[in-house]
Amino acid sequence: MGDSIAALEKPLSEIETDFQAFEIPTQPRFVSDYTDEIMQNLVAHSVHTAAPSFIGHMTSALPYFVLPLSKMMVGLNQNLVKIETSKAFTPLERQVLGMMHHLIYDQDTDFYQSWMHSANHSLGAFCSGGTVANITALWIARNQLLKADGEFKGVSREGSLKALRHYGYDDLAILVSERGHYSLGKAVDLLGIGRDNIISIPTDNNNKVDVAKMRQAALELARKNIKVLAIVGVAGTTETGNVDPLTELAALAKELNCHFHVDAAWGGASLLSNKYRHLLAGIELADSVTIDAHKQMYVPMGAGMVLFKDPEFAHAIAHHAEYILRRGSKDLGSQTLEGSRPGMAMLVHACLQIIGRDGYEILINNSLEKARYFAEQIKAHEDFELVTEPELCLLTYRYVPARVQAAMQLACEQVDTVKLARFNELLDGLTQFIQKHQREQGKSFVSRTRIQPARYFRQATVVFRVVLANPLTSHDILNQVLVEQSEIAALDNEFLPALMAMIALK
Amino acid sequence: MGDSIAALEKPLSEIETDFQAFEIPTQPRFVSDYTDEIMQNLVAHSVHTAAPSFIGHMTSALPYFVLPLSKMMVGLNQNLVKIETSKAFTPLERQVLGMMHHLIYDQDTDFYQSWMHSANHSLGAFCSGGTVANITALWIARNQLLKADGEFKGVSREGSLKALRHYGYDDLAILVSERGHYSLGKAVDLLGIGRDNIISIPTDNNNKVDVAKMRQAALELARKNIKVLAIVGVAGTTETGNVDPLTELAALAKELNCHFHVDAAWGGASLLSNKYRHLLAGIELADSVTIDAHKQMYVPMGAGMVLFKDPEFAHAIAHHAEYILRRGSKDLGSQTLEGSRPGMAMLVHACLQIIGRDGYEILINNSLEKARYFAEQIKAHEDFELVTEPELCLLTYRYVPARVQAAMQLACEQVDTVKLARFNELLDGLTQFIQKHQREQGKSFVSRTRIQPARYFRQATVVFRVVLANPLTSHDILNQVLVEQSEIAALDNEFLPALMAMIALK
């Protein structure tokens, strides 16, 4: 496939024709025949996520050594739910959680010697991904808030209705930035809290949550007798890559006496950079933190983690069964959402050891600095607009011809939101046109999303979204992405002419 | 490691000494050094789950071809949450779900042509394992039951409290056999239903749920204004391998107008045997079915599935986000509990194609027949007692010296439950002694659990538990397991002498 993002562009509907059979075939097949077939109809039409020009999503390139190790991991087929089917993989996973805990919370030797391998404690939970990690954190927080009390046996046993009645709350709520990840919506849906009880707090001009507005929202909830279960800080928003003011959020959580969770699924890896970890200052005040190793830690898909400040935190979801997870055992399954799980922690362990802090320092710094370089190129180019500055290694921008930029600048000054909306509508079409064509050309890939930039009075605006984590993405490739996008823009005969007509009208 | 279950037995506390470091190392390491180290401290102390004498758990041996394919799958690092990061893997996963749906529900060509690749439909959800599959099914069922209605926006948006109030229920409940898997407890805990609202229904002498008692329980709940959300049928209990009367349960679910879920995480693979699939008759009446491919389908850990009879079922949890999962897209992530996920479906696809129905027919029949052979050997041996007959390929038994069996038979006839309890208590100690020693000797491994056999008036009884799925497990190996257990029993100088003394007293 070389460096292109796909061997050849083929519409999904055509690809689907190779996957129409719905009956399991009767006859066994030769492995070689099967392999030949999937090389053509599957592998050739997979996405080259490791291509240096694939800069649209958080799925990272992998170091070569993880491939033979993953084959070994799969072959060993350990099941981490319990010691009997994992043996040494259990202490290994506990060590990985310990190392990630230390990266965040930096406790002393005594702490880790006491709790890292303790049967009745856990420094975190390993899971398939950030969604399960976030759900786990909020599940435990809910169970701790609505715990057993006198005659009441706890929400875990009696359910939400009786729990809220017992504690006298009319409802629970979770406070999070409007940029919070959609997995939080799933979490409150699952937990019976309800999606309307995720209180979406506006962000400032830098896409960071406005803590004053969050405090105000909390007061309003209190007046309505709705208890704030948790504040969630976002450490690396999915769409703009910004980090919430974590220290202030921690202080607010303390005031409200609620759980403080930080969703650092993507941004957490930046803690591995001594130079830039200050960008996540305050994360050590969180009660729980989600980090995905399969995002910026260069581990294959399927390696999520949630870390707990308090080694007793997970007690609120501890469960036992007769044939498994007996009390006092070190079986990891007694304090996780998932049951049977593979030994993915081994690949995180391998990356931490083989790449090391010094290696990650280079990788992370490189990504962040490349994002700053790209931002400068975008700003220097008269026909592009940088929409959000890179705080970590994610930025958004769009193609806006210089003359349109000037006209929009004027409209902004005149607060002519009607005109701005017309510009933005046409620009949205143009951005989508460019993004789709670029993907279809198969040379490079940026993603797109819709955000509400402060400068445009929060009008919804479609932007290109770039995540720079692949160490092989060169400055040349980034420059080429802009050249390609300018060329594609020139092919558009719908939105661009309309934009030019608008300017001419004026 | 040869055929032993572990290279050498080393206490966990000693293994843990190799996993004490809690700081991520500073310096990068050579891959070869790291690999050498983990070969000694990890791989050598992992569990040889593929050993033919490892017959204690459901973790299966793997066909060799899955190893290179898994390396390819990991290397491609696709993210199935959306098309942009998975392309052909998305239709492949939909095909796998279609094939498994067809295996259960056997719908016609039109059905699969209409729904298998339809953007707004799903025949199931692929996930990390059976626990997430069961949670997904019950989550959807809850959201469907407590759906939007007039002013009420649905439990998904407003939460449990308002949902129950709106519909006028005092609580929800789930009815399941006392042998139901512990993941159902996690599911109701998470969903805010509460563990006490899993109504555990007694089983008959064959560990199958008593449907009459379930109906009675449902009537009592109705009197208390508690709505039955779902009936869960178990198709292959984890501890005894029995299948609930699924057809009768389906009829009861219809009477109660509730969801009917079948947890066939382990037993579902038996549908691949034309000879034995009648053992799961009625499964096609289920609204949803959980099957783990990493159990008896010979796929590596991490391949769970839940299948939906109705292609619109998952609408109740559909969610969308701006940068991903746009409405009308074929992104799989809009109808799953998990977010980012690896391309594990490829390994299921490979096994279905390469092994084929004919191959699975041999593998499954072989396992079931081997279990019947082993049961005969246990019954024929005067010092062993078969506690539960194999219905699929799982059985339980224990070592009970012939003279003790005779004395217990008498106690049973005299309904001398006090004496029986004393026997059972000593036998429990002996069973645990044998099981632990056998595991430590490292030649073979059976697991143990605690069940309540009808013949002992439901007294809790510790038993050996054997799952026969590895095609390389020979009759010789099974016979040898009994020889080894008899030899270990003779080493016990606590429980066996006490049992003999009890008999002498009489």
UniProtKB/TrEMBL annotation, chains A, B:
This is Glutamate decarboxylase. InterPro entries: Asp_decarboxylase_pyridox, PyrdxlP-dep_de-COase, PyrdxlP-dep_Trfase, PyrdxlP-dep_Trfase_major, PyrdxlP-dep_Trfase_small. NCBIfam families: NOD_PanD_pyr (TIGR03799). Belongs to the group II decarboxylase family. Its cofactor is pyridoxal 5'-phosphate. Keywords: Decarboxylase, Lyase, Pyridoxal phosphate. It holds the Pfam family Pyridoxal_deC.
